[in-house]
Design a protein that fits this description.
Number of strands: 16
Distance between the termini: 29 Å
Bound molecules: 4-amino-1,4-dioxobutan-2-aminium adenosine-5'-monophosphate, magnesium ion
Shape: elongated
Number of helices: 12
Order of helices and strands: EEEHEEHHHEEEEHEEHHEHHEEEHHEH
Structural class: alpha+beta
């Protein structure tokens, strides 16, 4: 990414971009031009360019697309330290009065999301997200994972029926995928270590700052790996993502969060505690939660408020988690599973576990929970044909971006958020 103002002073350049700010005083027009590399100050002075070009600059509106030719000069006060003095100016696409000005309601910004994503903060978050995802892919490639492409249209629930989006699939019912996990489990038999990055869908009725109805899901599945090994992979992957953001999107990070220092501490090993230890810690803080209840956002916040690295909470009671997890032989009331909670109260970013390989146990649980086995026959087959110990997990990409950027709401971690109340634009 070559910044406009990285050219030396005196260089002749042609800049293409959008008008970020415009101000006129008689025979001189002050503009700020925005392109994908940043912003630069432009001055357009009558006499330095054809009259027709001057008039175009004089009347230009915010967010018009323009081309400017001119010479660069050093100017300490200008953003980026350079000013472009125009010798030619053309409007490519004029802009109507831009609906977004400095102080706007959240609703107006969301209704105009297609325009609001041009803002510097939104742009920075998208770059940070791209850097995090590239960091993940780099790590996965180095560590011999194969990227695979599971389906989005499915006939079985992975994470329970209550958050399924149902749709008409010709003359029968199908669902939008909640998780690629079961398909990834099928793929480890030939590829050993796999991952996918797909949209996942949750018909979550909850209006919270950490739930989307459509989010990007990075999921891994590993043959021959137990829950302990699974956690080691998670801490390395999350660290690789955060460190890649620090390396490759440092300027963007500084724009969106006050202090980037705490992110440097996100390196292995992360902290580990069992669910039972978590309950004890919560009791000591005055929380009234009984063993067997799932941890909600307030509990997760309390557990990590003072932490500087993410925290694994392992061994959840079976009643809190999905039927496919492996029973922990050392504490059969619990599963060999872990949720990874981001520090400073940001909450769950990963859910993962070792998978149950005992066909009898799986079937018994499905029966006890009233889960119809028909749509899962293919899944159960995986235990009938060369079953292997294995583990995996799912990372919510926007949850990680929310944490890395320090965002208040998860919707700002995605350009076009889908929530209970919003599917437009
Ligand atoms: O904990 P979850 O439900 O686990 C699974 O779906 C497993 N089948 C994944 C696997 O083992 N392959 O979801 C995994 C992660 C959560 O930790 C969270 O980060 C994210 O997905 N997530 C959401 N992100 C945004 N909005 C939502 N409604 C989310 N629900 C889950
Ligand atoms: Mg979860």
């Amino acid at each position: 990414m070559k910044r406009l103002f990285s050219a030396p002073a005196d260089a002749e350049v042609e800049a293409r971009g959008w008008i970020y700010r415009a101000r006129s005083s008689g025979a001189i027009v002050f503009l700020v031009l925005r392109d994908h590399t940043g912003i630069i100050q432009v001055t357009v002075k009558k006499g330095n360019l054809p009259d027709q070009d001057f008039e175009a600059a004089h009347g230009v509106t915010v967010e018009s697309s323009v081309k400017v030719r001119g010479k660069l000069f050093d100017d300490k006060r200008a953003p980026g330290g350079k000013e472009l003095r125009a010798t030619a100016f053309t409007v490519v696409g004029p802009a109507d009065t831009f609906p977004i000005t400095e102080y706007q309601s959240e609703e107006l910004l969301l209704d105009n999301r297609h325009l609001w994503i041009r803002s510097r903060e939104q742009t920075a978050v998208m770059r940070i997200k791209a850097a995090a995802m590239a960091g993940a892919r780099d790590w996965l490639k180095e560590n011999d994972f194969t990227e695979v492409t599971p389906p989005i249209l499915t006939t079985n629930a992975c994470e329970g029926g209550t958050t399924l989006f149902k749709l008409k699939y010709f003359d029968r019912d199908a669902y939008l995928s909640q998780s690629a996990q079961m398909y990834l489990e099928a793929l480890i038999f030939s590829l050993d270590q796999v991952y996918s990055i797909t949209p996942s869908f949750r018909a979550e009725k909850s209006r919270t700052t950490r739930h989307l109805t459509e989010y990007w899901h990075l999921e891994l599945e590993e043959a021959w790996v137990d829950n302990k090994g699974n956690m080691e992979i998670q801490e390395q992957l999350v660290s690789a993502m955060v460190q890649a953001v620090l390396r490759n999107a440092g300027d963007e990070l500084s724009l969106v969060r006050k202090d980037i220092e705490p992110l440097k501490a996100i390196v292995p090993p992360f902290k580990r505690m069992t669910y039972s230890q978590a309950i004890d810690k919560l009791h000591a803080q005055g929380y009234e939660i009984s063993w067997g209840c799932d941890l909600g956002a307030p509990e997760e916040r309390a557990l990590t408020a003072d932490e500087t690295v993410p925290v694994f909470v392992t061994n959840y009671p079976k009643e809190c988690k999905a039927f496919y997890m492996k029973e922990d032989p050392e504490d059969p009331r619990t599963y060999a599973c872990a949720d990874l909670l981001a520090p400073a109260g940001f909450g769950e970013i990963i859910g993962g576990s070792e998978r149950e390989t005992d066909l009898g146990k799986l079937v018994a649980r499905m029966e006890a929970q009233g889960i119809c086995q028909d749509p899962y026959q293919w899944y159960l087959d995986l235990r009938r044909f060369g079953s292997v110990p294995h583990s995996g997990f799912g990372l919510g990409v926007e949850r990680v971006v929310k944490f890395v950027c320090g965002l208040e709401h998860i919707r700002d971690a995605v350009p076009f958020p889908r929530t209970v109340s919003r599917v437009y634009p």
